[in-house]
Amino acid sequence: MKILVIHAHPKISTSVVQHAMLRAIEGLDDVTLVDLYAEYPAFDINVAREQQRLLDHDVVVLQHPLYWYSSPAIIKEWQDLVLENGWAYGPGGTRLAGRFLMSAISTGGPEQAYHHAGRNRFEITELLAPFNQTAWLCSMAWLEPFVIYSGRRMEAAQLSTATEGYRDLIVGLRDATIDPLSRLAPGYALPPNFHEGIRR
User: Fold this and answer.
1) Mean pLDDT throughout 110-116?
2) Global confidence as pTM
């Protein structure tokens, strides 16, 4: 399968974890990396180009740091403009049916902070619920998120192991050695029109 990685970090030059994640998947065949802040510094999203990119790929990965329990602002701008009514959802909006959507994120806090009894009070999957619903509305499959917790606090070897795991996941999805349907997020039910959009 072809994989599209939509990346957003407003200060990538200062990033440790996101930069390492990008390095881990750079240069892979059939994996397209798009840096939204680099391509659209004025947030002037080219809707036609972005929609064509989506059509040209099977798996869409939204890669970003978790900012205030969500994504950097340009991801929201991209969603607002690119995922149009009548194209991605709504009457006649089945262009993305049969594809897969996944978040690949990094957090500043440790994993134990993202639990009901933790400092952030919610599980990661709960905080990412808007992306889950976006996938469902667009007749896509929502995959279990890939998360690196407290990456800045990791030893270099630990971070390298974590990003190698990210690369292995991307390669496995690309090469079909990992069945994406085996990685559906817990509790996620495929949308009614999902199978109608699977490309043969």
Assistant:
1) 93
2) 0.95
